[in-house]
Amino acid sequence: SQELEQSPQSLIVQEGKNLTINCTSSKTLYGLYWYKQKYGEGLIFLMMLQKGGEEKSHEKITAKLDEKKQQSSLHITASQPSHAGIYLCGADRGRSNYQLIWGAGTKLIIKP
Amino acid sequence: GAGVSQTPSNKVTEKGKYVELRCDPISGHTALYWYRQSLGQGPEFLIYFQGTGAADDSGLPNDRFFAVRPEGSVSTLKIQRTERGDSAVYLCASSNRGTSPDTQYFGPGTRLTVL
């Protein structure tokens, strides 16, 4: 079973619409990483959150970590075809940075 | 600068054969990680190198899997007597390991298919 639960598993969104992807853990997260994956390109780093309540933005993507550090959300504003792909959240266990645990991913499709 | 590179991008082999997968990390990164990813799943940790030594190999599924990083840069993942269940995308990542946060940067992966 996944230690990190991502929802939804897949998402089809009309171009221009907003969307949110969630990543939830039953344990406190010491570092939460968001990556995007496209076929043949590996995982592309998006953002990293460490502190409870932290929020970071890059272009039209905003990631938040809740105060309890057990849930993170990734919000995309005014979606574009370039946003299509699989979004993965990963977290470190607190002992060290390596051996990240991962969610199963959210597949995002953007309809033109 | 150049990112993490992996070769080959695709590898098809027959059951029982030996394969080697190569990872070239970002220059100067001391930490290197191998993961395995099956369809519809997140990456599964295999092994972590700090410099030349394997700091944690607890994710290697069995003794058919072995990895080396002799000069602290390029790493090779070796799989003996391949089985159909070994088919997956093998991902390599590297990180600086001297900064905080220590983000892992991934290569494009090697898609291994065992027939």
Number of helices of chain B: 0
Q: What distance lies between the first and last C-alpha atoms of chain B, to the nearest angstrom?
A: 37 Å
Low-confidence stretches of chain A: none
Beta strand count of chain B: 11
Structural class of chain B: mainly beta
End-to-end gap of chain A: 35 Å
Overview of this protein structure:
The complex is a heterodimer of chains A (112) and B (115). Chain A has 112 residues and is mainly beta. Chain A is 0% helix and 54% strand. Chain A has strands at residues 4-7, 10-14, 19-25, 32-38, 42-49, 55-58, 61-65, 71-76, 85-91, 101-102, 106-111. In chain A, the strands form two sheets. In chain A, strands 2, 4, 5, 9, 10 and 11 form a six-stranded mixed β-sheet that branches. Chain A starts with a strand and ends with a strand. Chain B is an all-beta fold and 115 residues long. In chain B, 0% of the residues lie in helices and 48% in strands. Chain B has strands at 5-7, 10-13, 19-24, 31-37, 44-50, 53-56, 65-68, 75-79, 88-95, 105-106, 110-114. In chain B, the strands form two sheets. In chain B, strands 2, 4, 5, 6, 9, 10 and 11 form a seven-stranded mixed β-sheet that branches. In chain B, a hairpin with a 6-residue loop joins strand 7 (65-68) and strand 8. The radius of gyration of chain B is 13 Å and the shape is globular. Classes of the chains: A mainly beta (112), B mainly beta (115). The interface between A and B is medium-sized, with 24 and 29 residues.
